[in-house]
């Protein structure tokens, strides 16, 4: 009787796993998986893991449930790595089922817990994510990074910084590039106040001798550029060994945002010379630069270049070119762009166009679109457009039409007040999200530290400044304690 060769069996066995892992598409991976089942080739944890990993991006709950049933039948449901991979698939496709599966998993590793923290973060339930984080029997750097990312992604800046400070102060975990990148990402979106923490973290990166990777370097360039420290953005940019399109885009958008249009255009041309292909956001930045400076010829050239690169014109591209033509007085060109847009013009584009008509006193062109604009905008959210239209009617000596426009707005102004209250509530919740210049804060920093330490806020100008900036005493204590903790742990 012929005995099967075990080595031949193992070789074939591993070949199937390798084929599923290297499948060019989820469909091909599923076909291979089903072929193994039909041909009675024994399935192991690797073939199941590779199949789940390939199918997770499809976000198909029915497919994941079908694979789940098959995994139960095969007896792999309690395999910790298979269960964690299945949990990740449910987190992406159906989070309610992921919660049920997590409760049923008898053995959980750190990756299992981290996956659920990320899932709760994506669903917006940061409190539940933090409860899970505190309940973890063991944590690693990835656990802290996941929790910090959960806070940052849900606009809880102070909690994210506090979590990072706790991680550093514990002395058991040293932040890695993922952790640092997450913190810097939050700093870049906080504005000037986040810059205080961001510079400390940048110093930590430099002091530990880390190479400026593309990811960290791009975030630093973005942070400095957004806050107006363009000199530092260029220093980081020049120190990077490698740059991608996002790095160039961050620099171009930063210069455009702060009015340095010529420099933004120069960087765009330099990027093309290096062979880096611009993306849609890059064109938004360079078109914005052209609109600010009134560079009509260059703006028209870059707008036409979008389709040459195989990209699709988005609403923000149309908005930039309409703004450019409008400010330059080419209102017929701007109107032609609006009429030939592949997407429906929004209130921003209409506002830009009508403002240009008002500035250049081209009331005849404005009359062509006012009725269409009135049908598009909503009084409860677009009150500024109604005010603009009313001004156009008054300047064109159409008093009756101006009164009609004002009446349409007054009838629903209560909704606008409600929206304002909601905005005030959002500002109240986000204690760190304030906008002022870094230099202005630096001028007050010494007196603020003295006041925090000794509780002396009797100085009237200081009180007025804090009130104007919506900065609370708790916010200052949290900020200074964070930066001092980083400093005391040799991070700066």
TrEMBL record:
<dbReference type="InterPro" id="IPR011990">
    <property type="entry name" value="TPR-like_helical_dom_sf"/>
</dbReference>
<feature type="repeat" description="PPR">
    <location>
        <begin position="109"/>
        <end position="143"/>
    </location>
</feature>
<dbReference type="InterPro" id="IPR046960">
    <property type="entry name" value="PPR_At4g14850-like_plant"/>
</dbReference>
<feature type="repeat" description="PPR">
    <location>
        <begin position="279"/>
        <end position="313"/>
    </location>
</feature>
<dbReference type="InterPro" id="IPR002885">
    <property type="entry name" value="PPR_rpt"/>
</dbReference>
<dbReference type="Pfam" id="PF01535">
    <property type="entry name" value="PPR"/>
</dbReference>
<feature type="repeat" description="PPR">
    <location>
        <begin position="244"/>
        <end position="278"/>
    </location>
</feature>
<dbReference type="Pfam" id="PF13041">
    <property type="entry name" value="PPR_2"/>
</dbReference>
<protein>
    <recommendedName>
        <fullName>Pentatricopeptide repeat-containing protein</fullName>
    </recommendedName>
</protein>
<keyword id="KW-0677">Repeat</keyword>
